[in-house]
Design brief:
Length: 161
């Protein structure tokens, strides 16, 4: 099942563990440089960004360990590495901002979602700060408390009717 993104694009892959492991402070939408068979495989939702991370080298952004399975009907004589580093398309101002934040303040670049919008593959890149174990416990406790509150409100509405 393909979900719709808030921007109208179809979400093809999502990193659900990112919000568990990082405080996401800012997000950036960027394009990706892909081959023809990679985009065809990506449109079939055959991508995994669970272990992916992004880096900036020589003024260019790259995503590493993003797995896109090879396309079955594609060119078999020229197979590409499914986890190769893929170039990300960002504006120079955004890249400079990311360089400053990742170098000085200890942030990391985490891929959050891959989706197609207006025919182009996009990657939602999050600027995250790592959570400690006690932060993860606080987040889980808050989520459980919110769930209990919602359950109590639903029960109260059922009784009132």
């Amino acid at each position: 099942m393909v979900k719709k993104n808030e921007n109208g694009g179809k979400v093809l892959a999502q990193n659900k563990k990112a919000s568990h492991d990082y405080f996401i402070e800012d997000t950036f939408e960027c394009g990706m440089v892909l081959t023809g068979t990679e985009i065809k495989s990506l449109r079939q939702s055959r991508a995994n960004i669970g272990d992916a991370f992004a880096t900036i080298r020589n003024g260019e952004a790259f995503v590493h360990n993003m797995h896109i399975s090879p396309f079955e009907q594609g060119n078999r004589s020229n197979p590409t590495d499914p986890t190769r580093a893929r170039k990300l398309l960002l504006k120079k101002v955004e890249i400079n901002k990311l360089i400053g934040l990742t170098k000085q303040q200890g942030y990391t670049l985490v891929p959050l979602k891959v989706y197609v919008r207006n025919g182009y593959a996009k990657l939602l890149l999050g600027l995250g700060r790592g959570k400690k174990l006690y932060d993860k416990r606080d987040t889980a406790a808050k989520r459980d408390a919110d769930r209990d509150i919602q359950r109590a409100l639903r029960e109260r509405q059922k009784v009132a009717r």
